[in-house]
From TrEMBL:
Source lineage: Bacteria, Bacillati, Cyanobacteriota, Cyanophyceae, Nostocales
Superkingdom of origin: Bacteria
Entry protein name: Uncharacterized protein
SUPFAM superfamilies assigned to the protein according to its UniProt record, in alphabetical order: YjgF-like (SSF55298)
Species assigned in the record: Anabaena subtropica FACHB-260
Cited CDD domains: YjgF_YER057c_UK114_like_4
Pfam family name, one: Ribonuc_L-PSP
PANTHER family from the UniProt entry: 2-IMINOBUTANOATE/2-IMINOPROPANOATE DEAMINASE RIDA, 2-IMINOBUTANOATE_2-IMINOPROPANOATE DEAMINASE
InterPro entries: RutC-like_sf, YjgF/YER057c/UK114
Length: 133
């Protein structure tokens, strides 16, 4: 097994590293694990719309995967954490974005309802595992 290599997403990831001392991704051999990505922008602002927040979280996953040399096409497992339960909009938006970002495969997925996430206004956080060739 090779030594783990850690990655920091440019922008918000640098803040997280400096303030909270954690990395956004780690690559060990051909496996990439990322920390949970919220629907924040580089200033840690969360959109008012739940659909926009979910879409931003997917973009942040994409950005973070890219720092480690991976992409959505390599994702095999998704965990999503949700505050506020599961109104129909959650699964509608999640499945639409799964089809958009992973049109050629369907990863395994676990959804978890939680009381709170890392920022007070967060309603979603997405964490993935990817296997790169």
């Amino acid at each position: 097994m090779n030594k783990p290599k850690f990655f920091v997403t440019p922008g918000y990831g640098e803040y997280m590293l400096n303030q909270l001392h954690y990395s956004q991704a780690v690559k060990i051999d051909n496996r990439v694990e990322i920390s949970g990505q919220g629907g924040w922008d580089d200033n840690l602002q969360i959109p008012e719309s739940l659909a926009d927040e979910i879409a931003q979280a997917f973009r942040n996953v994409e950005r973070t995967l890219a720092t480690a040399g991976a992409g959505w096409e390599h994702v095999v497992h998704v965990n999503s954490y949700h505050v506020g339960g599961f109104p129909p909009e959650v699964n509608e938006v999640m499945s639409k974005l799964f089809r958009h970002y992973m049109p050629n495969h369907a990863p395994i997925w676990t959804q978890v309802g939680v009381a709170a996430l890392g920022l007070p206004t967060m309603r979603i956080e997405i964490r993935v595992t990817a296997i790169v060739p």
